[in-house]
């Protein structure tokens, strides 16, 4: 654990006890609903939480309740009701296992087995349109879930659904069905190095292996008869916006990228100013226990810098005005360096979870990707910018907040003129 995470754990416990999950991630419930969490389950969990140590028990308790109800409906022949409840149970078992930062802890492994069981039952009840994917990768294995549209599908567009650092592949089951497969798009929700089962099986993240894992997933999608290999895109939030940017810069087979809350600035903000859990989690993902070594070997080299200049596919970036992990000025400066057809949306007064606009973001990102994969949004020099106000208005042609009074911070100007 990091020095800050150890020393400040009491503060996080007080925040959870007094303000619930919103004290840590404002309005995050809206985002978690897009990840398959029913709001009543969420409230039940946090009614049981008074400190961080209570999280695994609370998630496991409510997950078990949802799974038991799912089995009841499956036994009664109510297949869709059962499938919906298995989905709710799966994402909560996933949260329970995530809350334990020891890949060898038998409780973590047991929670993972329950999540896998719920996904297996869900897949069976959905006519096997949700399928487990296990791929060999650099001496280990990476894990995903393939989501297929109903009926016979051939040569369809496909989208890789990339999770943030504290997410897992199961978090996209709901979104895959609602926003992609229902529109004839194949989806693949993934876990890269350092995440979920991939980490539990020993594969840690380094500076460049996550984008190589994305390329391995592209290999898999391109081999499927259901997929058109020339129309593979990616939707990423948080760290997957970062990893997706790296993949778009290094693998030309990625045909479009929609990235929200992407960590595109310096990594001092996320690792030294934000809640200490972010750095603690990434050290676990990378297999580090020595904080100084982590800072020297990995963190210092992580900023995207000029790498985004190598992106050639259309890209969409969206970020909250007060994102805790990437300062807006840095996000806009990174955007200036992108030479590919691009679009930027800044959401007024939103924080990192983009919880107040989550339903819009997930739907818009999917629709934008669908259009990009069908050949639109690709004109050379395309540069579309919006500042999205909380009151429903949108200021077009600029992503700068209106309270900046038509000024532009120096770091953004410098990036534009570089």
For the largest beta-sheet, the strand count, sense and barrel status come to: 10 strands, mixed
- Tell me the β content: 15-25%
Low-confidence stretches: none
Q: Calculate the mean pLDDT score and round it.
A: 93
Question: Could you say which overall geometry the principal axes of the C-alpha atoms support?
Answer: globular
Q: Order of helices and strands, N to C?
A: HHHHHHHEEEHEHHEHEHHHEHEHEEH
Radius of gyration from the CA trace?
20 Å
Total count of strands:
10
- Within the largest sheet, what's the order of strands? 1-2-4-3-5-6-7-8-9-10
- The quaternary structure here is single chain
* Number of H- or I-type helical stretches: 17
- How far is it from the N-terminal to the C-terminal residue, by CA? 39 Å
Helix content: 40-55%
Structural class: alpha/beta
Structural description of this entry:
The chain contains 17 helices and ten strands. The model has no long low-confidence stretch (mean pLDDT 93). Helices cover 45% and strands 16% of the residues. The protein is of the alpha/beta class. β5 (227-237), α11 (239-250) and β6 form a beta-alpha-beta unit. The chain has a ten-stranded mixed β-sheet with strand order 1-2-4-3-5-6-7-8-9-10, sandwiched between helices.
């Amino acid at each position: 654990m990091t020095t800050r995470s150890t020393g400040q754990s009491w503060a996080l416990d007080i925040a959870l006890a007094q303000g619930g999950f919103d004290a840590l991630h404002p309005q995050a419930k809206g985002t978690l609903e897009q990840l398959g969490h029913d709001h009543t389950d969420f409230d039940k969990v946090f009614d049981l939480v008074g400190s961080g140590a209570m999280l695994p028990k609370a998630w496991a308790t409510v997950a078990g309740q949802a799974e038991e109800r799912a089995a009841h409906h499956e036994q009664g022949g109510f297949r869709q009701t059962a499938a919906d409840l298995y989905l709710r149970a799966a994402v909560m078992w996933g949260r329970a296992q995530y809350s334990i930062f020891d890949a060898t802890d038998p409780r973590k492994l047991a929670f993972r087995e329950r999540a896998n069981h719920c996904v297996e039952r869900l897949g069976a009840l959905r006519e096997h349109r949700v399928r487990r994917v296990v791929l060999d990768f650099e001496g280990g294995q990476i894990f995903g879930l393939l989501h297929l549209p109903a009926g016979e599908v051939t040569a369809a567009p496909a989208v890789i659904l990339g999770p943030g650092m504290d997410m897992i592949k199961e978090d996209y089951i709901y979104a895959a069905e609602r926003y992609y497969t229902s529109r004839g798009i194949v989806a693949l929700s993934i876990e890269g190095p350092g995440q979920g089962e991939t980490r539990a099986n020993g594969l840690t993240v380094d500076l460049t292996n996550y984008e190589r894992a994305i390329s391995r997933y592209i290999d898999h999608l391109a081999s499927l008869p259901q997929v058109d290999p020339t129309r593979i895109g990616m939707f990423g939030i948080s760290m997957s916006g970062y990893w997706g940017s790296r993949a778009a810069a290094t693998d030309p087979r990625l045909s479009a990228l929609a990235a929200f809350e992407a960590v595109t600035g310096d990594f001092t903000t996320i690792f030294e100013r934000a809640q200490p859990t972010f750095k603690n989690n990434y050290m676990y993902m990378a297999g580090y226990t020595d904080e100084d070594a982590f800072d020297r070997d990995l963190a210092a080299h992580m900023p995207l810098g000029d790498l985004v200049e190598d992106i050639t596919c259309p890209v969409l970036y969206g970020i909250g005005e007060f994102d805790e992990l990437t300062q807006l000025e840095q996000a806009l400066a990174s955007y200036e360096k992108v030479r590919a057809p691009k679009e930027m949306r800044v959401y007024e007064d939103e924080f990192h979870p983009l919880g107040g606009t989550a339903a819009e973001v997930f739907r818009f990102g999917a629709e934008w990707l669908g259009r990009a994969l069908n050949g639109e949004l690709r004109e050379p020099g395309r540069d579309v910018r919006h500042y999205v106000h909380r009151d429903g208005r949108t200021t077009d042609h600029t992503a700068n907040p209106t309270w900046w009074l038509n000024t532009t911070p120096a770091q953004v100007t410098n990036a534009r003129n570089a």
